[in-house]
Recover the amino acids of this structure.
């Protein structure tokens, strides 16, 4: 697998393959991947770079140079997959587009991830996650208490496009087993994000209107799908609106009469919100958690990132990995029984595997 991508979408896709044993050759421009120079370092690499590029091999090629381009094409001859994330048109100008590569190697699977896809009026427009969250309506539906958009905690379109790209690559590899022919996969980050809005698009798809975020089921209109403050300054999230959860907690509180209010989202649920707010404000987080666990209600404590890594469940499953330098790594979430992942935690130095170039 040849990885020509940078930042998150392409590298996260190829990381999944590397963690599960694929040989991934990262083709870097002179000067290296952008993420080698972004953020904190805790050793020879930035955390950003090593998190997405562990277990890969690094070669340096200037694809604008005829000799280096020839060396890249030689790698393509024996490769299964190429992943790139440049703007549409760049690969063709460099002579490394799908048409060129598939003419040499018809079995090649080529995944191109871009902001808006390979065609259309915005195809060549640059955009990162925040712009795409804005354009798809996601940011406009992610509102803080002041009614204004809140900054997203993670770059959702980056990860969604990586995972959709991974699915496409795997489907194309499976199809190749039958046809002997590879394929071109066009992943638009805008479309991957829109595809993930199906559960909140009801008012738009059914009635053509913008959802009233404060009143919808999973964005503020449900008493059993929101966070609450506890008396010790900690917070918890109630996150289950099934009837059994509602009746268990309201029944325990002696207010089962309020349960019908939770059948539909909206401001009429305010009495339930008020009851739960008062209940949890009179308890510590530990006390509230013990109660909710005893009642088998769906909930979670609001944790910091350090607390999340120290979570007993995360520890029990060995999801946080430690390398020889004592640095922590996020594990791979895809768990096979018969072919478990064996991630290498080594991040390649720039050009470390230059001997792969003929």
């Amino acid at each position: 697998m040849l990885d020509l991508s940078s930042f998150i979408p392409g590298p996260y896709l190829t990381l999944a393959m590397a963690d599960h044993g694929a040989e991934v050759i990262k083709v870097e421009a002179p000067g290296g991947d952008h993420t080698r120079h972004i953020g904190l370092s805790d050793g020879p690499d930035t955390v950003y770079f090593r998190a997405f590029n562990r277990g890969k091999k690094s070669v340096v090629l200037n694809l604008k140079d005829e000799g280096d381009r020839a060396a890249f094409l030689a790698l393509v001859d024996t490769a299964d997959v190429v992943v790139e994330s440049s703007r549409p048109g760049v690969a063709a100008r460099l002579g490394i587009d799908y048409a060129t590569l598939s003419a040499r190697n018809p079995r090649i699977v080529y995944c191109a991830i871009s902001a808006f896809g390979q065609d259309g009026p915005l195809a060549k427009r640059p955009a990162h996650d925040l712009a795409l969250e804005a354009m798809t309506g996601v940011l406009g539906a992610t509102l803080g208490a002041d009614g204004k958009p809140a900054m997203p905690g993670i770059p959702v379109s980056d990860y969604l496009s990586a995972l959709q790209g991974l699915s496409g690559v795997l489907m194309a590899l499976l199809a190749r087993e039958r046809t002997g022919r590879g394929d071109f996969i066009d992943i638009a980050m805008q479309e991957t994000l829109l595809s993930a809005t199906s559960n909140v698009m009801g008012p738009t798809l059914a009635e053509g209107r913008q959802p009233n975020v404060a009143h919808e089921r999973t964005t503020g209109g449900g008493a059993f799908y929101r966070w609450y403050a506890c008396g010790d300054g900690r917070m918890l999230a109630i996150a289950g609106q099934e009837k059994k959860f509602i009746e268990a907690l309201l029944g325990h509180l002696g207010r089962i009469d309020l349960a019908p209010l939770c059948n539909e989202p909206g401001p009429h649920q305010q009495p339930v919100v008020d009851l739960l707010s008062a209940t949890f404000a009179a308890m510590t987080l530990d006390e509230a958690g013990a109660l909710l666990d005893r009642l088998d209600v769906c909930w979670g404590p609001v944790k910091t990132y350090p607390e999340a890594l120290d979570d007993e469940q995360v520890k029990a499953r060995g999801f946080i990995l430690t390398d020889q330098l004592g640095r922590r790594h996020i594990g791979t979430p895809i768990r096979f029984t018969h072919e478990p992942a064996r991630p290498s935690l080594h991040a390649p130095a720039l050009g470390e595997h230059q001997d792969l170039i003929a």
Remarks:
- Residues 156-179 form the longest helix (24 residues).
